[in-house]
Amino acid sequence: MRRRIVRYLMPLALAGMLAGIAGPAQAAAASVNVIDFAFQPANVKAQLGGSVDWTFDSANTENHTSTDTSGMGLWDSGSEPPGASFSFAFTAAGTYSYDCTIHTFMKGTVKVPMKATPATGTTTTQFKIQWATITAPAGFVYDVQIQRPTGGGFVNWMTGVTINRGRFTPDAGAGTYAFRARLHKTSNNKASGYSAAAKITVS
User: 46, 117, 132, 148: which sits with the fewest CB atoms below 10 Å from its CB?
Assistant: First the structure.
């Protein structure tokens, strides 16, 4: 069985350079079985900093790939034969689409949530908001949005930043606040979808 591991969510060249370097504390991996001709499950949730393991079923009759389709060139397993496996670690919150470049009707999505702690507090609580496990690699930034209890939907909070976390003291009174984030490549303005919202409740 062949196994190729890319440990960090960053451009492929940088990922190759860092393949042997230990990252943050390893989160549990999510698993996807690649069969003729589907990803099972097609939609999977990975922990922030956790990996997704694609296993190319030994019963397959054709080769397949797992390839990022965001336009950022984050990962590409290459053509994998039956019995192979591939792993990629997601260090930034967001929603990532991918397909098999050999059979492009095979599509999947990886959803990576961000973190907000503590879950509850008061208007004087300083909350920790984390949207990535590493500082953004060269050529990439993070966009973070906030939804306040006063309404109006999501608006920009920290955009175009390279830091991976921040602190927030409630600025619109009591209620529920929500945060979401994405990874953004500056050279071509491509980005992941936004992550699912991380919420805090303020009393």
Answer: 117
Residue closest to 14 by CA, chosen among 25, 23, 27: 23
Question: What is the widest separation between alpha-carbon atoms in the chain?
Answer: 60
Res. 6: pLDDT tops 50:
no
* Residue 131 CA from chain centroid, whole number: 9
Among 110, 105, 78, 81, residue whose Cα is nearest residue 94: 110
Closest by CA to 3, choosing from 81, 102, 96, is 81
**Alpha-carbon distance 58 to 54, whole Å?**
12
Which region, left, alpha or beta, applies to residue 94 given φ > 0 means left and ψ of -120 to 50 means alpha? left
Check pLDDT > 90 for residue 1: no
